[in-house]
């Protein structure tokens, strides 16, 4: 995942223990810290069906077509309309990292080497018009995502499916993909080019939502996509700026163990200023009392104000999305081709000042590993270049001397000018000050976001030293490590995420071996060991993992924040 500002497109993996800002741990949310499994208290606090849930967002829910959305676990708002073969377990905490069946009866049945996956659809599945959902509808929905005019979704199937690299979608090739087989209306089989033990995770993405071919309107399908979930679209204005959902009367809760679907109506209003969103949620007057946000965090100043108000603090949920902010090196550029220079920078970094620049310890946690500190990813503790809390400039100077720079050196750090507290001037300045104490003069090169991204994702133009960040598409080590360190994923004519341009045959082989595993716990342990091994090369400097804190309206019940998304799950929320 490229950046947290596109969580609505690329939500992925995560880890969270749901903790209220007041300090009380909870599996449910602000109404009852002792509640279990996402329930929210007793008596009048028990979640009830009915009412309207308002969603106040900064970014519009654009491209509301399952082929074009880049989501994991089915997404947040999209998951209310689009069901997929599998989905995320809608539970708080670590249980929320599990893949569970959705349209399918199980999470998939692999053949011996995980190159073929078979799914069977549940009985009683229907679209919003009452017609049955078949395996052919799922196949067609996936094939649409290959059409150029519907681009934007996750790229995995292009690489994984046999023939996926050349298929151009059903509008140009109505014969479809031979590697997706539907022998009967309830069975669908996927034939892969290589073993993929994490295929059930990919099957959570909205490309796996069924689409009835007769109702497909191409690029205009997003205006009224046919629902397979508990809600249907009744209004879509300005490409998702205003999105209104009402109940799909043909959705059968007996076939859906994950979505609670308490509200009768969901009104998504976007394009709002973040400060306005937080103020409206805090005030909670009128309809805003039953409002949430799926994309707006509280900032340091707002948290300071909330801290003195116990009632308000009890309405703040905390989540940790699986994301790492780090310094990236391009060893093709001098002096970063010298491992001792990279090690010196690793020792010199002051993570306390970086965390403060990111908003403080309430909004960021220091990192010494590339993988987030969550079991689902295979987190294995290590700190190969211990800088302590405030850096180790003496060790850094020693290494610079060994590298041939006894008088220090001058380097340029590329960063974004966006005020995002991740790759922004505040973070760059904190790095600059820490490295200065070790004799490394850092000249800052701040560029607007588009230019910044073009440079850091370019093989040809990437500098040797820059800020970057990465989040996984699902809670596992594969989508975290492979795009960053698999040499076969180096892209020379497009967006390249392997900043170090590492192409180590041993690393590539281990990635292939782990991908064969369908035992996800065993795979996680291998991902953690690989992270630790790669970390010895000092190809990056992990800085911090973000923490998300978000307000909900005073009448909102049943807040569930999982270890998959790190944010409130709208499919669980009640307003009565």
From TrEMBL:
Composition-biased stretches, type Low complexity, lie in 29-44
Region annotation Disordered: where it falls in the sequence: 29-50
Q: Does the keyword Plastid apply?
A: no
The region annotated as signal peptide is: 1-28
Give the InterPro entries listed for this entry.
Answer: Peptide/Ni-bd, SBP_5, SBP_5_dom
Q: What keyword terms does UniProt attach to this protein? A: Signal
Which part of the chain is the Solute-binding protein family domain? 98-488
- Say yes or no: keyword DNA-binding present: no
Tell me which SUPFAM superfamilies the record gives: Periplasmic binding protein-like II
Question: Could you tell me which PANTHER family the record lists for this protein?
Answer: ABC TRANSPORTER SUBSTRATE-BINDING PROTEIN, PERIPLASMIC BINDING COMPONENT OF ABC TRANSPORTER
Please report the name of this protein according to its UniProt entry: ABC transporter substrate-binding protein
